[in-house]
Amino acid sequence: EQYKSNTGNYPSTLENISKALNCNFKTISGHTVKLVGAGLVDKNYYGTSVIHSLSPYGKIFVKFISDFKQL
């Protein structure tokens, strides 16, 4: 199931992220902990699900990287 946040993100569970990237769940979980700690990803609880989405700072960082790649 996919949830849409009020910021326009399409957040997802770690399970869905690991499936989409074809990566190990524990690997995705470890990286996500670091991204949350850095303020790039938000972590929210919806019932029994934990949903991750880009934070406002994360969106700025993604835009920066995208713009930088075009140089």
What does this structure look like?
This protein is an alpha+beta fold and 71 residues long. The chain has helices at residues 14-21, 25-37, 56-69, and strands at 41-46, 49-54. The protein has a two-stranded antiparallel sheet. The longest helix is centred in the last third of the chain and has 14 residues, at 56-69. The model has no long low-confidence stretch (mean pLDDT 86).
Number of H/I helices: 3
Strand segment count: 2
Low-confidence runs (pLDDT<50, min 5 residues)? Answer: none
Overall morphology:
globular
Mean pLDDT: 86
Cα(first) to Cα(last) distance is 37 Å
In spatial order, strands of the major sheet run 1-2
Keywords:
71 residues, alpha+beta, 3 helices
Topology of helices and strands:
Layout (H helix, E strand, L loop, with lengths): L13 H8 L3 H13 L3 E6 L2 E6 L1 H14 L2
Antiparallel strand pairs: 1-2
Helix pairs in contact: 1-2
Question: Could you give a quick summary of the protein structure above?
Answer:
With 71 residues, this protein is of the alpha+beta class. The chain is 49% helix and 17% strand.
